[in-house]
Write a structure and sequence with these properties.
The structure is a single chain. By secondary structure, this protein is α+β, with helices and mostly antiparallel strands. The protein has a single domain, classed as Gamma-glutamyl cyclotransferase-like (Hypothetical upf0131 protein ytfp). The protein has 6 helices and 7 strands; from the N terminus they run H-E-H-E-E-H-E-E-H-E-E-H-H. Strands 1-3-2-4-5 form a 5-stranded mixed barrel, surrounded by 4 helices. Helix 5 crosses helix 6. It starts with a helix and ends with a helix.
């Protein structure tokens, strides 16, 4: 955790964090600013098995990861320099409990200009990586997944709602939500 922090933060400036899923609608940390942002080279994907938070070992759900390729519209959050040392461990615990993500300092484009933000990208070598599943399988898995934080369907729908709220349209996610809401495979 400290190595990652020190590799991209000099201790004298605010720190930016890129959110693409639940961080958008439940950041769980105070931030001084949020901006729409585009991250190139990665896309939002339900590519991580969830065996605790949105599923169980017997009936896993899926959660979002940043997978290679394409681009992703999300939000960047400015964490004030004075709060980094106290907030960063909580953020790390939330995002890195299973080691399924690789923390990366990546350039993001915002309407106010570029920022370098910490993003948690999918580690394809991790056993939790589900890969790109056929959409009908994703629909079935999301419908069945229930874990510590509730139903997988709610997680997917809440993410889509938060994106729409910020003017972000993710057509693949919207199509999935439509199928979930209308009970189509």
């Amino acid at each position: 955790m400290q190595r990652t922090l020190r590799s991209g933060w000099d201790g004298t400036h605010d720190l930016w964090i890129f959110g693409y899923g639940s961080l958008i609608w439940r950041p769980e940390f105070d931030h001084s600013e949020s901006r729409l942002a585009t991250l190139r080279g990665y896309h939002r994907s339900l590519c991580l098995w969830s065996r605790v938070n949105r599923g169980t070992p017997e009936i896993p759900g899926l959660v979002f990861g940043l997978d290679r390729g394409g681009s992703c519209k999300g939000m960047t959050f400015r964490l004030p320099r004075a709060k980094v040392e106290s907030v960063f461990p909580q953020l790390w615990e939330r995002e890195m409990p299973s080691g399924a993500y690789l923390p990366r300092w990546l350039g993001c484009q915002t309407p106010e200009g570029p920022v370098t933000a910490l993003a948690f990208v999918m580690d394809r070598r991790n056993s939790g990586y589900a890969g790109r599943l056929p959409e009908h399988e994703v629909v079935q898995i999301v419908r069945r997944g229930i874990g510590r934080y509730g139903h997988c369907v709610e997680y997917v729908a809440e993410t889509a709602r938060a994106l729409r709220h910020h003017g972000i349209i993710d057509s693949r996610l919207e199509n999935l939500v439509h199928r979930l809401e209308h009970h189509t495979e």
